[in-house]
Design a protein that fits this description.
alpha/beta, Alkaline Phosphatase, subunit A, Gyrase A, domain 2, 2 domains, seven-stranded mixed β-sheet, four-stranded antiparallel β-sheet, 25 strands, 27% helix, 21% strand, globular
């Protein structure tokens, strides 16, 4: 039954009284929602300009944490892992979705005795059986026969994403000579594991099968997944995936919303079997993220949603009245879509449910006039060439680099000489990057210091993450980007990115609403999204100290919820 959002808190209170439940009684269900890319200032703007929206109702009738920060690096993997474990990379071991490990062996290794350790660890779409398909290679019959209507067949997707992963793309454990799945790579347990230990059902929906990582090391976490591949192509034989047009991203996100609505009804993700409402379930949204990153995108006409307007400017624009940066038409449309989708979920949950909304990461820059895209391929090639010149006979220095709006580099040579060489090279690297004018046209922008404000090298890089230098996963060099620096190729293909340390990367919202939660409270204390994990368990009446990362880091549940 649909309930007007303004009346939901009253409806919940009436339900409690009817069954004799008081506010101190733990909730029975928690829905966790990540709106990837969402900044706190995006939420503030949207609520102010849409006072009758779902998000406004949740803020006004729940608890809002206005000074929340997501972990560094502000990437999807460490961002979600922080929310479900209570830990940062030094305890979870998760630095990025694609990283490097000096102890593991390369994918496909069969001779684990003589093989040399050290390999890229990729837990993104590249490990799908077929990353070009929405079903990640399950090959659901008819899925691409008559798009987009045939996407309705995607609920046939496996609820066990391990079946969608190509094991030949996984790193190899030298001790067992077997592939390492994402969940095995995680060093700690998750809220899903703790719930499973108490015989509670759990479910999760995300953008790649690699998100089976939420299962935790013992692989006993989520009972069910729904992981359609966002980097799958929108049509067979095409070249455009679901991230290249925000309307396509909304289509994709809606598939996951439908799965969550089925879970809220006690069904499986396909809606065909009754399995019971999970104790912990949820999803991530990608629509806001792509709307922030795309230079141009189609969007729905807000005055007539049946019309599609092509080539709208992505990201933010200058408001003619206030002179401040505000979401442009593409981004404001994505925010409205997410708000309406969350409204469907809120309408579907029962009175014993708590909803937590946050973001794995933000995005930077907001101001496109500060954008400078630096060709990291050219930069790293120049670094290797400079090292080879200084060390005749050397075969480059970079083992792996991950550069979005920050720089993480793992080296073949970890000596102080090598790490200091890289630091000096980066701080003296300059050139011409790509910017954007207010109309989205490509401009030439000079940069210095490789677009970085600070570089941590060697032991200093390890200290930044609070780990020992001998840690096999920690980067050897970490570059903190100046505002506006984005690393990519030679095109104006994106106007924002994430993964860095800037405020726009890390300052995200947290909203908690529902059973037993205080109404209309804004908490201005500094908090971290890692505090969501112990909050979930505490809300369900479970012990947060059962989370290994919580014990290591002393992570506290979010304050002032009651």
């Amino acid at each position: 039954m649909k309930i007007k959002k303004a009346l939901l808190p009253l409806a919940i209170a009436m339900a409690f009284n009817a069954v004799g439940v008081n506010a101190a009684t733990p909730a029975q269900h928690v829905v966790l929602i990540s709106v990837d890319g969402l900044h706190q200032n995006d939420l503030d703007w949207f609520v102010k300009n849409n006072p009758a929206s779902t998000l406004a109702s949740l803020v006004n009738n729940g608890v809002q944490f206005a000074n929340a920060m997501t972990p560094f690096p502000a990437d999807s993997f460490p961002g979600l892992i922080g929310q479900i474990t209570g830990g940062n990379p030094h305890s979870t071991g998760i630095y990025y979705d694609v990283s490097y490990n000096r102890d593991l062996l390369a994918p496909g290794t069969t001779d684990c005795v003589s093989a040399t350790p050290g390999t890229i660890v990729a837990f993104d779409e590249s490990i799908d059986k077929n990353p070009d398909r929405l079903d990640a290679g399950q090959n659901i019959p008819g899925l691409y026969d008559n798009v987009p209507s045939s996407y309705a067949l995607i609920p046939a997707l496996s609820g066990d994403p391990k079946t969608l992963i190509n094991t030949a793309s996984l790193p190899v454990d030298p001790g067992t000579c077997t592939p390492v799945y994402p969940h095995q790579y995680l060093k700690v347990n998750t809220v899903f594991n703790v719930a499973h230990q108490h015989h509670l059902r759990t479910a999760w929906s995300d953008k790649h099968p690699a998100y089976e990582i939420v299962n935790g090391r013992n692989d006993k976490g989520a009972n069910e997944f729904f992981t359609p591949e966002i980097n799958g192509l929108t049509v067979t034989g095409g070249s455009v995936d679901f991230t290249k047009n925000n309307i396509d991203t909304q289509t994709y996100d809606n598939l996951k919303v439908n799965a969550v609505l089925n879970w809220a009804k006690g069904k499986d993700h396909a809606g065909t079997s009754t399995v019971g409402v999970p104790a912990i379930y949820g999803l991530n949204f990608q629509s806001v993220s792509t709307a922030q990153k795309l230079n141009f995108s189609s969007y729905y006409d807000p005055s007539n949603p049946a019309n599609i307007i092509p080539n709208g400017l992505g990201g933010y624009t200058i408001d003619a009245v206030s002179g401040k940066l505000v979401p442009g038409m593409v981004l404001s449309g994505a925010l409205s879509f997410v708000d309406q989708s969350i409204g469907k979920i809120v309408d579907a949950v029962d009175a014993n449910t708590v909803v937590i909304i946050s973001a794995k990461h933000g995005q930077s820059p907001e101001d496109r006039s500060k954008l400078v895209i630096i060709n990291d391929g050219d930069m790293l090639a120049a670094l290797d060439a400079a090292w080879n010149t200084a060390h005749p006979g050397a075969n480059g220095l970079v083992a792996h680099s991950l550069d979005d709006d920050g720089v993480l580099i793992w080296l073949k040579d970890r000596s102080k000489t090598a790490t200091q060489f890289v630091k000096n090279f980066l701080m003296n690297y300059s050139g011409i990057g790509i910017g954007s004018d207010s109309l989205g046209n490509k401009t030439a922008v000079p940069f210095t210091n490789a677009g970085l404000s600070t570089v941590y090298a060697g032991h200093d890089a390890a200290k930044l993450f609070n780990v020992n230098w001998h840690n096999p996963r920690v980067p050897d060099v970490v570059g903190i980007a100046k505002e506006g620096s984005v690393y990519g190729g030679g095109k104006l293909s994106k106007i924002a990115e994430h993964g860095g340390m800037a405020e726009n990367d890390r300052h995200v919202p947290i909203i908690v609403w529902g059973a037993g939660i205080a109404s209309g409270k804004t908490v201005t204390n500094s908090v971290e999204t890692t505090q969501i994990a112990p909050t979930i368990l505490k809300t369900l009446g479970l012990d947060p100290s059962k989370l290994k990362a919580v014990k290591i880091e002393g992570t506290q549940a979010l304050p002032q919820l009651n």
